[in-house]
């Protein structure tokens, strides 16, 4: 694994904190602006939000600050770095998509890609699982 910390932080147990409040809380803790310096993706199905920092910050220190923050504790949220993975899921794909197209797309450096080792297509879900040769290609 790379010694470099992930630019993404996972917030679990977010049901007590509405999305706008969460964004304001993260701005307050980080001193940064949502959209300009970081993005927040909500995954309500699993009660999680992921903050990804565009601006280079010490995410390990940010996780520590969040874990100690009074409001984060009141909402009973847990905070951790998003671990690196070699696999991603692409959703809402067009019906006509091919594994070759997805391979070439995700290997393109302009798309943040890298060498792809496998693509599994799930046409009934309009999704695919893309596996990279290493975790640096899945940005």
TrEMBL record:
This is PAR14 polymerase. It comes from the Eukaryota. InterPro entries: Nucleotide-bd_a/b_plait_sf (IPR012677), RRM_PARP14_2 (IPR057050). The gene is Parp14_1. Gene3D superfamilies: 3.30.70.330. It comes from Rhabdornis inornatus. Residues 5-83 form the PARP14 second RRM domain. The lineage of its organism: Eukaryota, Metazoa, Chordata, Craniata, Vertebrata.
